[in-house]
Amino acid sequence: MHLLVTILGLCIGSFLNVVIYRVPRDESISYPPSHCTNCGYKLRPIDLVPIISYLFLRGRCRSCKENISIQYPFIEFLNGLMYLLLFIKFNISLEFLFYAIFTSCLIVISVIDIKSKDVYSSISIFTLIIAVIYLLSGKYFGDISLINNVIGGIIGYGVIFLFVYFGGMGEGDADIAGLSGLFIGIKGICGALFISVIIAGIVASYKYLIKKERKAEMAFTPYIALGTIVWILVGEKLLEVYLNIFL
């Protein structure tokens, strides 16, 4: 079962690459079929096997031999790994299903933000719809506290919006923090934002002190996404360790 879940994650990861490429260009994610962006060669099923096709083709288009970005197998691998880790923790459950979809959305949002410094409303709205379905499903078929998660969403959005208001971040960052709060609740979003700030601070320090990048812009949405995923997977354990050390 673990293998099947991983393969599913890899295949969905391949689709995520399509979304990442086409959404910023305002192109349909369903038409035309997958093709080489350099020569237009229509990819065959044998060219679309996650990771394996990339390795078999040695990272080049079968037709024009143009280099294929390493991003493609990386996103496939990352999404497959996330599905596997989520399955190990939650098994077949409501949490696994919706966290898997949410994680895929976070990957898409993060990569697009890194590349374009923008968070597209189409993906945010889709994620919001998934969050609402998750909350309603959890209320009637699980043990999710609707109030707790809604307040978590408000906290996530509100905290980041304060930074947006004072010019420190973009509105998209607040949207993603709010969406994360809807999925992981009050304690979760507080922990996720704390983790996000720590990781972002380390990266910013590295860029400033080691790479001497004084004015480089830094997309914060990927750090919110990373903090959220870390919380989902090991947040409770990290909190326990933190409390044992400092309290």
SSE order and pairing:
Blueprint: H1 2-22, H2 52-56, H3 71-90, H4 94-116, H5 121-141, H6 146-165, H7 171-210, H8 221-246
Helix pairs in contact: 1-3, 1-4, 3-4, 4-5, 4-8, 5-7, 6-7, 7-8
Descriptive notes:
There is one protein chain. This protein has about 250 residues and is mostly helical. The chain has a domain at about 135-245. Helices cover about 70% and strands about 0% of the residues. It contains eight helices and no strands. It has helices at about 1-20, 50-55, 70-90, 95-115, 120-140, 145-165, 170-210, 220-245. Helix 7 (about 170-210) packs across helix 8. The radius of gyration is 19 Å and the shape is globular. The model has no long low-confidence stretch (mean pLDDT about 90). InterPro entries: Prepilin_IV_endopep_pep, Prepilin_pept_A24_N, Prepilin_peptidase/N-MTase.
* Mean pLDDT level: 90
Beginning-to-end CA distance, first to last residue: 41 Å
The 3D shape can be described as globular
Total of DSSP H or I helical runs spanning 4+ residues:
8
Oligomeric category: single chain
Note poorly predicted spans: none
Helix and strand run:
HHHHHHHH
| SSE-based structural type | mainly alpha
For the secondary structure, the number of strands is 0
GO biological process, one term: signal peptide processing
InterPro entries: Prepilin_IV_endopep_pep, Prepilin_pept_A24_N, Prepilin_peptidase/N-MTase
Keywords: Cell membrane, Membrane, Transmembrane, Transmembrane helix
Transmembrane segments: 96-114, 120-137, 146-167, 179-204, 216-234
